[in-house]
Amino acid sequence: RGTATAAAAAAVPLPRRQDLPRKAFCSLHEIQQRTKRFHLGVILLSYPWLHRTHPDPRGYTLSLVVQALEQGLIQNQSLAKEVEDDDDDDSNDDDKDNWEDSRKYAIFWDFASLHQHPRTEEQTASFHQGLDSLALFYSHPQTICFQVTQL
User: Fold this and answer.
1) Which pTM was predicted?
2) How far apart are CA 62 and CA 56, in angstroms?
3) Contacting residues for 3 by C-beta, under 8 A, at least 6 apart
């Protein structure tokens, strides 16, 4: 919800999960509703942690992700294909709106999505529940894995 873009623009590191505002997150219900209507993609970041207390202390990974999103380097290919296939059919006026929505994502960034140390008992339980769900993210057809392979 713009938190990553705002942090990149301010040249500050992305805050850890428990320091982000509530509006930075989508509920499961919101994601399910957007997925039904707009084929919302989920971006899963894969990157090296640069320091044990903060994976991206200088905002390098953050700037790469924001740049890739702004330049359209990451696209929800399943919806892009649907809109492309329907180009010959003028009966669907929602194609342009759907295409715009195909460029919206939920981002799973471990540092900003899972509670980090120090954690309360409740946050620790949430952290482990999140870890247990990672296989679903990696294997889901709407997931896009964005890998940072060079520093």
Assistant:
1) 0.72
2) 7
3) 14, 20, 21, 24, 112
SS (H, E, C) the chain: CCHHHHHHHCCCCCCCHHHCCHHHCCCHHHHHHHHHHHCCEEEEEECCCCCCCCCCCCCHHHHHHHHHHHCCCCCCHHHHHHHHHCCCCCCCCCHHHHHHHCCCEEEECHHHHCCCCCCCHHHHHHHHHHHHCHHHHHHCCCEEEEECCCC
Burial class (CB in 10 A: 0-12, 13-18, 19+), 117: exposed
Task: Quote the tokens at residue 41.
Answer: 């993609």
Query: For 24-59, what is each residue's pLDDT tens digit?
Result: 888 778 777 776 666 667 788 999 999 999 999 988
- Beta strands 41-46 and 143-147 are parallel
Distance from CA of residue 5 to its chain's centroid?
12
Task: Render pLDDT for 72-94 as a digit per residue (tens, 0 to 9).
Answer: 766 555 444 443 444 444 445 55
